[in-house]
Amino acid sequence: MKNKLRKEKIGIVIPAANESETIEAFCLDLIKNIHRLKINAKVFIVVDNASKDNTKSILEKIVKKYKLIKLVYEPKNRNVVDAYVRGYREAIKYKCDFIIEMDSGFSHLPSELHKFIQGYKEGYDCVFGIRPLWSINYKVPLKRRIFSLGGTILSNLLLGTSYKDMTSGYEGFRREILEQILRESLKSSGHFWHTEIKYRAKDFHYKEVPITYKFPTPRVKLNSIYNSFIILFYLATDRWSKKLKLRK
Asked: pTM for this one?
């Protein structure tokens, strides 16, 4: 499988907004880890009008020097979910065999990329990162811990899933699995979309791997919480309607 990975394409999708202070260092670290893993990778960094600084101009210089990075500028994006999906579709169009999503700004570490590649090598359809949310040694703002833990517990209860972390965004999918997930319209407009993705992927062969995560901010926006409850209610309704159809 090691030699096979050199031929197969690995896509890495990264939304980036207001990351001018770290984006160059992040890209260089990512490139270093890609070379270390000896994989055939293409990086798709999605920037839209949510970015108010010079992140885009910095990336324009980087892509001229490093051909494995592609800047995807999409000013029509309405929210962060549009950015993720735009990057996914770009990677699918490029015919990447395994597609990894991660955050910029070192919230997700390029040095942990190998964990997702290993899951792919082992034959899993999906590989999901899990943060040490239950650990008292994990330094995380209390509000974010409550939101992530509460979201995981409540989602598992209502959706019949058994994930250890329902809101983590460092994850990877085989292309055909991701295409199947994206055929059904996604309802989320905020970061709860990671929960929606995991719900859609619950019947596939998946693996969870431990990751490090740096929360960018202790704040949790009220509209994000509101959207989360709306989507959770929708998914729970979807689950029970499907169960009722199976009983008939």
From this structure: 0.89
